[in-house]
Amino acid sequence: MDATQTGFAGESGAVKIQERLQKRHQARAEDAERRKEAKDSKSVVEEKGEYFSSSFNAERASIEEVLSGCSGADRAAVTQRLEEATAKTVQLQKFLNDSMLFLTQYELRQAQAALLKLQSSIAEAREQAVPRKKFAFRARTKATDKVSETPSPAADARADSGVAKVDGAAESEQCSFSHMDNASLTKTAADVQKRDVLLSHLTNCKVRLFGSPSTLHLKHIDGCEILCGPVSSSVFVDHCRNSTLAVPCQQLRTHNTTDTRVYLQVTSRAIIEDCHGVSFAPFSWSYPTLEEDFEVSGLDRDRNNWSQVDDFNWLAAGTHSPNWTVIPEADRKTTWDP
Asked: In CATH, what number is assigned to the domain containing residue 40?
């Protein structure tokens, strides 16, 4: 091999070495850039989390301070404070919903638990300020005792109008239905608008709630069909079985519930705990003023996470919880009223 060929080979080898060095340098630079971007992204998420935590806790403390002022105050002052606390809690729920994308599961659960505690405190303060009268049937005559337990036309009329006598007071004034069997129950938008609604100890009842409640509490429900207009904040379900529910809301939290179908529109993620046999489908009930009630509620009509369900008893990542299912399209109810 002559000198010219030897020199060319040496130059070619040097070029290849230089190219490899450049590629290695470029790969290292790209890797460093990716690490920097990941670090910056993590930093942004951490900053958002810190901002959320400080803002959330400050507003929670503010609501707790409002509630503490209820102690010893007159009824008018308590009512005003409860309205303020309720409005602040609704805004805090919206803040949580808007922050869910960057919160960890732990942060989300802590915030949801804090909200639940606030809502319970508001309900307790309202109960103390305006005690709910116990349901009591009037004494029946012996002749009445011999009659079938089927509700009379008059009783049906009272139930259909949403008015039931509770120790002489109309239950519609209390925004609740309690301890009733085999009845058709209705409340209008005027009854429920921006109010807390409680349904408890109902068996084989059909309930229609038109309008936009602030919150909805369902307790000890058996064999019922409950349809509700848009709830501006949360729906709490406890000890419900063999029932059908249809409701739009910001948050759904369900405890101790079995064999129940939920037709849902929810802007956050639904939560179940100590439940089994619960199934979900999109909200499908409709009535003439539904769109107006959505406007009043402030819910996003186009946002629905009905199939995004967190089971607090099922922590196996990547494996679907056996405690809830999606209702097949062919089995979903689309016609609710004759």
From this structure: 1.20.58.1250
